[in-house]
Amino acid sequence: MQARLLLEDGTLFTGKSFGAEVDKTGEVVFNTGITGYQEVLSDPSYCGQIVTMTYPLIGNYGISRDDFESIAPSIHGFVVRRYEPTPSNWRAQYNLGDLLKEYGIPGITDIDTRMLTRIIRQHGTMKGILTTSSKSVAELQDMMATTSIDELRNQVARTSTPNVYSSPGSKERIVLVDFGAKSGILRELNKRDCDVVIVPHDTTAEEIRRLHPDGIQLSNGPGDPKDVPYAVNTIAELLGEYPIFGICLGHQLLSLACGADTEKLKFGHRGGNHPVKDLETGRCYITSQNHGYTVNEASLAGTDLVVTHINNNDKTVEGVKHLKHPAFSVQYHPEAAPGPYDNGYLFDHFIEMIREHKRLHPQKPRQAELMAAAKGAQ
Ligand SMILES: NC(=O)CC[C@H](N)C(=O)O
User: Which of 226, 249, 261, 289 is the best mutation target for the ligand 1 pocket, counting ligand atoms within 8 Å of the beta carbon and taking the most?
Assistant: First the structure.
């Protein structure tokens, strides 16, 4: 069956469908990873986006239950140069096309993804519509223009957990604020035996306090960080009280909470080989990335945040730390999934920060409350 991708600027790509037979509008972005298509399409940060893989052969190792980064993918479309329907991999349980059909996601193959990527690089990210219908270009333009803003915004509420749940461990208690979290973050905390409580995106500071965290992990998530001002206020309230580690959207929200500003990048960073320099050591790390927004460096002046990491390609901010409080964050993904695992040490750094904070504040706040309760019971 034929599929078409129409961009907001009028460029039309005609190829073959390999996903669901539906029409979907989304922001068209590209990812340069060679492998990891399953993690990419199930990463909630891509919610509402039509993702183009620049690597030309996609689908060849199939889909495996273990590789999902969320329960259900929330991307709006998948674009590839050549789709391979017959996986060659002992781990494969089914193929990519079946996954897209199951979740109502359209897929297009056999189009020139190099040309598409160049257009996005030159003109910046734009809206597009992916269709298997025979509607005219004018009709498709209309549909794209009238797609409700809500469908392309408010993605944090669409991808966050609606309920609190826990993933027990015997060490530090971490409250993971789920703005559309990848499972990889939970996996890394569990690997370190943390006692993790995962809470919805709009959990208040008071509700978080009641969970007696040792530290707070702010997750990745979709959309513009300015779409969730309530989360910024919550973070500002908790800053200094508990050690905080932010990843991607979490990094942007921590920065906003400290008075800095964020802005949209022309076409974003999405892939598994983005070079990031640690300004303290001078060492360059290869990182996994997926973001369209960034913290504006100039806006950090006058805040208590300093830049700790920069992107070696375009020199944008990749990490910050607070000068007075135990809080730091990175724009990239130390949990990898997909991508290099070189940055996993940041979770260890977070746990060391928590232990140090506990040494400095042995009575805060869990122990003090427990002692008061014990006294009351006597
Ligand atoms: N992976 C993320 O958390 C992405 C953050 C934000 N949605 C952005 O695109 O910049």
Answer: 249
Q: Does position 299 have pLDDT exceeding 70, yes or no?
A: yes
d(CA 127, CA 95): 28
Domain covering 2-152, topology: Glucose Oxidase; domain 1 (3.50.30)
**What is the pLDDT averaged over residues 143-158?**
81
Separation of CA 294 and ligand 1 centre (Å):
8
Under 8 Å between Cβ of 18 and 85: yes
Which CATH class name applies to 156-366? alpha beta
Q: Say which residue the tokens 């223009």 belong to.
A: 145
Question: Residues of 78-91 as b/e, b for ≥16 C-beta within 10 angstroms?
Answer: bbbbebbeebeeee
pLDDT tens profile 60-93? 999 999 999 999 999 999 999 999 999 999 999 9
Say if residue 106 is preceded by a cis peptide, omega within 30 of 0: no
User: Start-end ranges of CATH 3.40.50.880 in the chain?
Assistant: 156-366
